[in-house]
Specification:
By secondary structure, the chain is mostly beta strands. The protein is 1% helix and 31% strand. It is built from one helix and 24 strands.
Length: 399
């Protein structure tokens, strides 16, 4: 049944910013089986309507909608934007049918299998997926429109049959991946959060060959290094657990979940090891404690932020372990020199900035609550949030 929504805006609880409106008050559509009336655990059987810990979702420019159904090791596709709650998917990639699950379909890796798929995005006319536990990125040159359409390209591995981290070697290189959790595409560039190698890789043009090496590395001094925070204390140029990527007002943004911060570069780096210009969630580049070292969060702190996305002049951050969504607004080009440590302008999913309970007060999921929300993407007037702990995806309209 289609849900009828009131048209009141989400408003910031910060004094002096009460007129902010960005999203409608509740999700317009909820995907995933309805589990809102019971605290009791139930088997999460794979079906065309069910989701198990989804970590990514995207609405493509062609109008298709795709979800990384991470726990079921599959991708689910809808021909067009879902219009009703619990709407069944039209296609599955990664499993023989909607009723089966298992890493690489309980077989060997191939062109249409996945193992813990996470980040997902449209890339021109095609689709890219961060196939995390196969340590690769899969690319379809054209948008899939059927079950188990095979991918055209693979990055991180020499071919589709391989799936060892860093191709089975201790060191890494520009053509290898280890736990690739995030993928992002914009204006011809492809960005990958190579999480296990503690770095972000950039391809300046869309790759055309299997295993094609990246052009730029961030988080490490060169393409062969992979130590956490470069083997030393955190800095403006180091990463611990980079996870998702966005471009905000022309500036590269990376959610560094392991350092409990969001990193923002001045523009899009073209040289290896470029330091970021600002961080959110911490007061400086050296501090990285969750919630800035105290139990309760605040408007300036973060706890394992896994998702970032840009919506016009807004930067939205999925503050995963605090089960909330934060937003920062910039009137024109942001002043990066004054951005570090700035409090958020917008809060969603919690009653106030000092609250962090899953589904607000550890209650049942609501249309405006989160439990370990994981990924966020924006396309047009829609915001998609992978609410992983509630085993669902929320589709939100902008107001």
């Amino acid at each position: 049944m289609r849900v009828s929504l009131p048209l009141h805006p989400i408003r910031s609880p910060i004094a002096g910013v009460s007129d902010i409106s960005l999203l409608e008050p509740t999700a317009a559509v909820i995907l995933g089986d309805d589990r809102s009336e019971s605290f009791l655990p139930e088997p999460l059987q794979p079906r065309s309507t069910s989701l198990f810990a989804p970590r990514g979702a995207c609405l493509t420019e062609s109008g298709q909608f795709w979800v990384s159904d991470t726990g079921h090791h599959r991708l689910l596709g809808w021909r067009s934007m879902p219009q009703t709650d619990h709407q069944p998917a039209d296609w599955v990639i990664g499993q023989p049918d909607f009723q089966r699950e298992g890493q690489n379909a309980k077989g060997q890796p191939g062109r249409a299998t996945v193992s813990v798929p996470t980040g997902i995005c449209g890339c021109g006319n095609g689709l890219a997926v961060a196939d995390a536990w196969n340590h690769r990125v899969l690319i379809w040159k054209e948008m899939p429109q059927d079950h188990n359409v095979p991918a055209d390209l693979v990055l991180g591995q020499a071919d589709f049959s391989q799936n060892q981290p860093n191709r089975g070697e201790q060191e890494t290189r520009a053509d290898r991946l280890h736990w690739s959790y995030g993928v992002f595409f914009q204006e011809g560039r492809l960005f990958v959060a190579d999480t296990g190698n503690r770095r972000v890789l950039i391809w300046n043009q869309m790759p055309e060959e299997n295993g094609q090496p990246a052009d730029v590395v961030l988080g490490q001094a060169d393409m062969t290094l992979r130590n956490e925070n470069r083997g030393d204390s955190p800095t403006a140029a180091s990463l611990r657990w980079g996870h998702s990527i966005a471009i905000w007002q022309g500036n590269l943004v990376v959610a560094d979940a392991g350092n409990n911060r969001v990193m923002i570069w001045d523009g899009i780096p073209t040289e290896n090891n470029t330091p970021c210009a600002a961080v959110l969630g911490q007061t400086n580049f050296e501090q990285v404690e969750l919630n800035q070292g105290v139990y309760l969060p605040s408007a300036t702190s973060l706890n394992m932020p896994y998702g970032v996305a840009a919506l016009k002049d807004w930067l939205l951050v999925v503050d995963t372990a605090n089960s909330r969504l934060l937003g920062w607004q910039s009137d024109g080009q942001p002043d990066l020199h004054s951005l570090t440590g700035r409090p958020a302008d917008l809060l969603l999913g919690q009653p106030h900035f000092r609250s962090k309970g899953e589904n607000r007060d550890y209650g049942l999921p609501q249309r405006d609550s989160f439990c370990w929300c994981y990924g966020i993407q924006i396309c047009g007037d829609w915001v998609t949030i992978a609410d992983s702990g509630n085993n669902r995806v929320l589709l939100w309209r902008t107001s």
